Amino acid sequence: MPVRQVLKMGEPLLRQVAAPVTRFDAQLAALVADLDDTMRELNGAGIAAPQIGVSARVVIFELKDNPRYPHLAPVPYTVLVNPLVTPLGAEEDEGWEGCLSVPGLRGLVPRFRRLRYQGFDVQGAPIDRTVEGFHARVVQHEVDHLDGILFPQRVRDLRNFGFEDALAAQLTPMPD
Predict the structure, then answer these.
(1) What are the residue ranges spanned by the domains of the chain?
(2) What is the pLDDT of residue 171?
């Protein structure tokens, strides 16, 4: 499957709520393959269908041997369709985030520390997991894309938002 062009912040589709998936078929499998190829080519930890121009409630994520995130624990490869995210408690962590749709920029973003996520895999089998830390952060970031939200909208203090090269000293000790 091809590597697709990633839409950048400002594109109207990235501000829209994505449509629910109603069929688990070859078309969905092809979309997931395109998402996978695109995420891997760009060394992303995750990607959402709207980022490649498709209004569908589909995200994928994984973290293993990723040069952009060498210091973080692995996150299992997951295809998550029609996700539902439920925070488990009010505790939040702040962490530096970037995005394939916001290239070159990073921001300090608060996210729930623990959560439960539910949905379906590409074949329609149910998924129900409880996670924390970076895994929880990735899920929240990707699901935000399905609701038309990009990480800069979550940055509370714009002094903690900027270009990666200018923020390099601040980024080094903090997890993404």
Answers:
(1) 12-171
(2) 74
In angstroms, the CA 75 to CA 73 distance is: 7
The pLDDT confidence band at residue 173, using thresholds 50, 70 and 90, is very low
Vertex 11 angle, CA 167 and 104, to 5°: 15
pLDDT for the residue numbered 68? 66
Distance between CA atoms of residues 101 and 150, nearest Å: 8
Three-state SS string over the chain comes to CCCCCCCCCCCHHHHCCCCCCCCCCHHHHHHHHHHHHHHHHCCCCEEEHHHHCCCCCEEEEEECCCCCCCCCCCEEEEEEEEEEEEECCCCEEEEEECCCCCCCEEEEEEEECEEEEEEECCCCCEEEEEEEHHHHHHHHHHHHHHCCCCHHHHCCCHHHEEEHHHHHHHHCCCCC
Q: Which candidate in 41, 62, 142, 164 is catalytic?
A: 142
> Across-strand partners of 84?
118
Question: Is 91 a known active-site residue?
Answer: no
Q: What is the pLDDT of residues 23-46, one digit of tens each?
A: 999 999 999 999 999 999 999 999
- Specify whether domain 12-171 bears CATH 3.40.190.10: no
